[in-house]
Amino acid sequence: xxxxxxxxxxxxxxxxxxxxxxxxxxxxxxxxxxxxxxxxxxxxxxxxxxxxxxxxxxxxxxxxxxxxxxxxxxxxxxxxxxxxxxxxxxxxxxx
Length: 95
Fold this sequence. Notes:
Strand order of the largest sheet: 2-3-1-4
CATH superfamily: Lrp/AsnC effector binding domain/regulation of amino acid metabolism (RAM) domain
Order of helices and strands: EHEEHEH
Oligomer: single chain
Radius of gyration: 16 Å
Number of helices: 3
Number of strands: 4
Largest sheet: 4 strands, antiparallel
CATH topology: Alpha-Beta Plaits
CATH architecture: 2-Layer Sandwich
Strand content: 25-35%
């Protein structure tokens, strides 16, 4: 599974509609409305790198109201669940 984090700048007046349309795309697992320099963050989870291009370049970028995107591909995942499992195995002990 490949995860891409897509920062989305959108037409401010259309953020809810843009978020809903992005969330409905195949390959998009979540869309967050956020504060700061970007308006939305979309989580894209696909099987192959080519699928990222299909979702982002061919679909997400074409949603009316999307002004620009910036895509970041994750190469390693650290989740609270993974960290707790590691520590419970005693892997945090250097001896």
